[in-house]
Amino acid sequence: MAAPGSRVLWSYCGWGCSRLIRTGGPQWLHSSLRAGSLGVRLLSQAKQATETHFGFETVSEEEKGGKVYQVFESVAKKYDLMNDMMSLGIHRVWKDMLLWKMNPLPGTQLLDVAGGTGDIAFRFLNYVQEQYQRKQKRQLKAQQNLSWEEIAKKYQNEDDPLGGSRVMICDINREMLKVGQKKAFDQGYKAGLAWVLGDAEELPFDDHKFDIYTIAFGIRNVTHIDQALQEAHRVLKPGGRFLCLEFSQVNNPLISRLYDLYSFQVIPVLGEVVAGDWKSYQYLVESIRKFPSQEEFKEMIEDAGFQKVTYESLTSGIVAIHSAFKL
Ligand SMILES: COc1cc(O)cc(C/C=C(\C)CC/C=C(\C)CC/C=C(\C)CC/C=C(\C)CC/C=C(\C)CC/C=C(\C)CC/C=C(\C)CC/C=C(\C)CC/C=C(\C)CCC=C(C)C)c1O
Ligand SMILES: C[S@@+](CC[C@H](N)C(=O)[O-])C[C@H]1O[C@@H](n2cnc3c(N)ncnc32)[C@H](O)[C@@H]1O
């Protein structure tokens, strides 16, 4: 049963992932969506009326999803600009580092959860295209007696320039996806990417679908992180890799003090001036402080069934990249 005021739509994508997705008011996510498949769990949760946090505020689990939705609905149009301003462009380097760590091969099927405006997906497409072109050049150089037609065909990229790689961007927020789709259109990304509205806690994909799962600056916003991690494990193929870029714990006391000052004194002001939204940026800095440390998050990933869990702290631990495998 759909919640009152919710809309129901079928999302279809080329990977055979048609599933029901519901959208609507704040209740749709954390109550009605699960009513079918996880009704029993929901009932026991409802009895306990579990509380969680939204930044430094204590809220019920049912409320949190709606509040997070409102934050990203409100900031979507200014999201990319704000990231460049807040980090002086450093977030781009972090995202590049995620791609270097991933080092995807042509043919990789990537699922980018909480993919928002597509930063990780576009980097992925650039990376695999470059890899594929290099590989083709190497092969061409190694082959003798090729006709000029064969050489021309390869150089004109008549076959798939991505070598079969695909990225699926999944996000719960329609406005973030809209901004991402416009960006893709403006920047000329056409092939190899698909956009799907969906919840990290209940991914609209079959089991064992993807080679790599990424989530960048997304998992901090999810109500049940353990559930999102289990979903990541479910949709990955055996041998698949989980990669998460997220804010973490700063390990240098001096940087930590400066970072706190910057976070609480500057970021909400920037949010107000640039995006007209102090509260969303207050939520950002508070949610960063609520997120588990590198070691704690590593344990959570292990608890979800992943193996070979490692992490690398970047910029003194302001962010960390966690990597894990489904073996
Ligand atoms: C709603 O949820 C969201 C919305 C979003 O738009 C985005 C996200 C997800 C987030 C991202 C994708 C990335 C967002 C980036 C950040 C939150 C920023 C991360 C921060 C940094 C990379 C810089 C870290 C800063 C420090 C270690 C401290 C340095 C700070 C200072 C020297 C200034 C100290 C501040 C004061 C004393 C307060 C008073 C100062 C002023 C009024 C002057 C203003 C100063 C500045 C604007 C300078 C800022 C300097 C830097 C950024 C340079 C940092 C350089 C290095 C660390 C090398 C989302 O979830
Ligand atoms: C800070 S943005 C990150 C966007 C992008 N990955 C990046 O690195 O720029 C966080 C994103 O997480 C999405 N999000 C929050 N909760 C989610 C959930 N339960 N399932 C899927 N996406 C979610 C938001 O809609 C938003 O687009």
UniProtKB/TrEMBL annotation:
Q: Record the organism.
A: Octodon degus (Degu)
Task: Alphabetically list the UniProt keywords.
Answer: Membrane, Methyltransferase, Mitochondrion, Mitochondrion inner membrane, S-adenosyl-L-methionine, Transferase, Ubiquinone biosynthesis
EC number, UniProt record: 2.1.1.201
Name of protein: 2-methoxy-6-polyprenyl-1,4-benzoquinol methylase, mitochondrial
User: What does the UniProt function comment say about this protein?
Assistant: Methyltransferase required for the conversion of 2-decaprenyl-6-methoxy-1,4-benzoquinol (DDMQH2) to 2-decaprenyl-3-methyl-6-methoxy-1,4-benzoquinol (DMQH2).
- Self-association and partners: Component of a multi-subunit COQ enzyme complex, composed of at least COQ3, COQ4, COQ5, COQ6, COQ7 and COQ9. Interacts with PYURF; the interaction is direct, stabilizes COQ5 protein and associates PYURF with COQ enzyme complex.
> Can the keyword Cell wall biogenesis/degradation be found in this entry's annotation?
no
Q: Which family does it belong to?
A: Belongs to the class I-like SAM-binding methyltransferase superfamily. MenG/UbiE family.
Instruction: List the GO terms this entry assigns under cellular component, sorted alphabetically.
Output: extrinsic component of mitochondrial inner membrane; mitochondrial matrix; ubiquinone biosynthesis complex
Q: What is its main location?
A: mitochondrion
Q: What CDD domains does the record tag this protein with?
A: AdoMet_MTases
Where does this protein act, in terms of pathway?
Cofactor biosynthesis; ubiquinone biosynthesis
One Pfam entry name: Ubie_methyltran
Q: Which GO terms describe its molecular function?
A: 2-methoxy-6-polyprenyl-1,4-benzoquinol methyltransferase activity
Q: What does the record give as the reaction this protein catalyses? A: 2-methoxy-6-(all-trans-decaprenyl)benzene-1,4-diol + S-adenosyl-L-methionine = 5-methoxy-2-methyl-3-(all-trans-decaprenyl)benzene-1,4-diol + S-adenosyl-L-homocysteine + H(+)
Compartments reported by the entry = Mitochondrion inner membrane
Domain of life (superkingdom): Eukaryota
Sites binding S-adenosyl-L-methionine sit at T117, D171, D199, A200
The biological processes this protein is annotated with in GO are: methylation
**Topology of this chain in the membrane:** Peripheral membrane protein
Task: Extract the HAMAP family matched here.
Answer: MenG_UbiE_methyltr
Q: Which InterPro entries match?
A: SAM-dependent_MTases_sf, UbiE/COQ5_MeTrFase, UbiE/COQ5_MeTrFase_CS
